[in-house]
């Protein structure tokens, strides 16, 4: 975990000077004493604190340290805690440990329109390093659903700080309780027609032509493989980023037939087996061939399952994978818009798609093809998996067969 505390020369600033600055990563700020939280109005008085934190930054760091073994969760929680702390000290003029319920309501409204934009919002669509002078904590306004998710995370932060004896009370505990509703239908997925547009877009990339450069060829091969493994495997972007080639393995079923599997470690550090269908293994061999590698991975092979186009064979970060996906979705949206103004609505859907949309798309298409819901559940890691029972082993073979027969990507070109 990258510490929130200073990793470079801090900027000592007077309280009033904050109003003239853009939002800056916390590790570059040296907070004045009245904004550090050492004397916050909501600090716990008396009792025995369970953490050694003397100020708000140290307290938030202690909370984040609990998630070092789940990088994706850590990244999300750090982002939300940092946004709130920066808003509190730079725009609202209060330390985090002095925020009231009314302050948090004001912050929730701020999330829908982070203003002034020059201070809070990235001007570039490209993800910038935290050390870059143009870095900002927001890419744009948050949707109502994203804002609600933010407040859930912050509620967990405040509740933990109260339990740890750092804060006297949780200012979000007074929030209006929403009645629990039935699970909504998944809406963030691509129809079969839109999914075909995505595939057509990839197959028309410059790297697929005879005149393509080496970089274009490898980039096109990577796009095709990335979309293949996300769709056929139903993987999350974070799972793709952390999985190695050696996670593919082959074993024989009861009839002696060879079946390939992919071992994936997902949320909560839980491991599951994903059927590596014949089609997936053909695409893997195709992708490895583009890099001059033998068709099948070796046991224990440490190469990442998605390789960089240039440079060392280091795994791409989740952010880098998202950039590749967004590029393809943007090209697919442009492909639809070129057909005429009546295609604007589905084009807008494609332009807003992300890695998790592919996971929802895969699940929806599998159920469309009548794949048993139990098999979809296990493929996606929504339940624990056992490989020791003979009965469950037979069930896994059935899951592999059903997935292979009915869930296909169907690229039109196989050369």
Automatic annotation (TrEMBL):
It is found in: Cytoplasm. It holds the Pfam family Phage_integrase. Residues 185-406 form the Tyr recombinase domain. GO terms for cellular component: cytoplasm. Gene3D superfamilies: 1.10.150.130, Intergrase catalytic core (1.10.443.10). Residues 58-162 form the Core-binding (CB) domain. Keywords: Cell cycle, Cell division, Chromosome partition, Cytoplasm, DNA integration, DNA recombination, DNA-binding. One of its GO terms (biological process) is DNA integration. InterPro entries: CB (IPR044068), DNA_brk_join_enz (IPR011010), Integrase-like_cat_sf (IPR013762), Integrase_catalytic (IPR002104), Integrase_recombinase_N (IPR010998), Tyrosine_recombinase_XerCD (IPR050090). This is Integrase. It comes from Cupriavidus basilensis.
